[in-house]
Amino acid sequence: MPGANAAEQEAVIALLSDPASHGGAAVERVTTHGAIIFLAGDRAWKLKRAVRFPYMDFSTAALRRAACEAELRLNRRTAPELYLAVVPVTRAADGALAIDGGGEPVDWLVAMRRFPADAVLDGVADRGGVDAALAEAIAEHVASFHAAAERRPDGGGVAAMRRVIDTNDAALVPCAPTLPREATAALTEESRRRLEVLGPLLERRRREGCVRLGHGDLHLANICLIAGEPRLFDALEFDERLITIDVLYDAAFLVMDLWVRGLRVAAHRFLGRYVERTGDLAGLALMPLFLSMRAAVRAHVSVAMGGADAARRARAYLALAGAALEPAPPCLIAVGGLSGTGKSTLALALAPSLPPAPGAVVLRSDLVRKRLAGLKPGERAGPEAYAPERTRQVYERLRRDAATALAAGRSAIVDAVHADPAERAAVEAVAARLGVPFRGIWLEAPAPTLVARVEARRGDASDADAAVVRRQLGYDIGTLAWPAVTATGDRDAVVDAARRLIDPAAA
Known about the structure:
The chain is α/β, with parallel strands linked by helices. It has 17 helices and 17 strands.
């Protein structure tokens, strides 16, 4: 809604829209619910709109200046090459306005270095360019940002999440009839109930350092590619309480944005790599609530933007907000087979379709082995990493992580050879102990196929080569109770066969 001096700001908007204010350069305008960005030459000038919402107040020049200064400070953490200065719009004695002139400041701008519009990831996504590899690169970047972010144990927790739910509800009330009040009220009620259940976990995480000064608005439109590398920009600046949050709540915004766009594989791979980097499996119990809250934020923001397209997006966000809170019992899947059978390929293909969104946690023995050895995934491990005792530790860790994920309400896929009957029995026992459905799948392929596949690998976490495959071919795998799938030929056919084993009705 317009702020107290929205009419006065029209003159500032006219100034910034005039090419003469930018040395004759053509001006492009990008309008959001809280700002107008003027693109001219090699600069972007961001003006806070004179608006007031239940969650954001830019209705005075003083408030807009404070927001500009906060934006500069916060975004220099992730994109210092883009954020240049806070600059006044001034009025001279004769009433003429200028950018950073000699008169009295009447409004304020964030001066930024302009970057190509096609570098912003919402546009990249529209062109089909956000694939699994890019999603994982973004996850690495976000995980590094969170690791370095300032800890704020005095914020976050239950109180912060309750405030977000209450603010969402207040902002959703005037969204009717676009978003029916009956539906938004039910969403608020269920969100509050879920928060009550999850409160102890939120508070424990707050005490343990999981609440940090994050980004707060982490969706695709606020990530760009600079020299091919992801950069986070446009962090939420108008209320520091809204970025003093659990790191998973910060990451959930991007998961939600990818999911609602239909980029389910990218959503799964982003969260999977993020959790792999952070080890934050137990925190995944919060993801359904976090996804719902983030979708609710975008629902009322979309309505505030106005227009038919915005209304359509708002309804999609509201639908996701509700769906995220629907019960989705987890399951445990184990994929076994000799090296080269395609266990990891199958696990990653199955995972996004297993509830709850954005899919099952994939636990891969090769990655656990490297982590226990203190190596990066692509670094080759020595013989000691494959000693019997270390292999026992790898399988124990896989089962422990699977139990943690299942206890958090997440489905899990354990990807390992599982040649020993005791290993297969032990992973089945995890599911039995936790009372969740289990399905083991054994992949098999001819020896020449296995050898060819492992020799063709490049940059993979697995160290298996032809010699390893030949050694494995001599294993006595004992009685095999898991159904076998022939892992040759068409990849999609193999995935479909595995899906039929997991859930014949769904397949």
